[in-house]
Write a structure and sequence with these properties.
74% of the residues lie in helices and 0% in strands. The chain has helices at 2-11, 16-23, 27-31, 34-41, 45-50, 52-72, 84-94, 100-107, 112-124, 132-162. The longest helix is centred in the C-terminal third of the chain and has 31 residues, at 132-162. It is globular, with a radius of gyration of 15 Å. The two termini are 25 Å apart.
């Protein structure tokens, strides 16, 4: 949990205390939070789009071992069979063709603990990018999208416990 909060705090404009509060709120409230909207709106989509070929290459190289780790170490059953899924989704999001609610629906089957454990490693995939601005923008984008996923997963767990 600490590593997850630290990953979000390092890549987004939220303190760990703010993040703990955000993570305890319902998804519908979080999606309308001015702070989250500001994070998403502050993404340099031009830089992200311009660097997509480079990011796609990184994802193509790094995601297969990441997916193997998810499957073999964390026991996630439904893992994409290629990095194309993630790359296509990020491109669709950047081009406003994919929504956050669609992203949440795609990840509902992923157990919350596995999701939370995987995020620091996923954000770290871009650590080797030499261009600091490109690296930080991709890490921020992935962290922002993953924050929404964690909120949704925690909400799902709370609802499941309440039943």
């Amino acid at each position: 949990m600490r590593l997850l909060l630290l990953t979000f705090a390092q890549n987004l404009s939220f303190s760990e205390i703010q993040l703990e509060k955000i993570l305890s709120q319902p998804l519908t409230e979080v999606l309308t939070l001015p702070g989250l909207q500001q994070e998403l709106n502050s993404l340099d989509t031009n830089l992200l789009k311009k660097s997509l070929p480079r990011a796609g290459g990184i994802l193509a190289k790094e995601l297969p071992p990441f997916y193997n780790w998810l499957k073999n170490e964390l026991g996630v059953k439904r893992v994409p069979d290629s990095p194309d899924h993630t790359t296509t989704w990020v491109i669709g999001f950047l081009h406003n063709q994919k929504s956050l609610t669609h992203l949440v629906e795609l990840h509902r089957p992923v157990p919350r603990l596995a999701l939370e454990a995987s995020i620091p490693r996923l954000v770290e995939i871009f650590e080797g990018v030499e261009d600091v601005q490109v690296r930080q923008e991709w890490q921020k984008a992935i962290a922002a999208l993953c924050l929404v996923l964690v909120v949704a997963a925690r909400q799902q767990d709370r609802v499941g416990v309440a039943m």
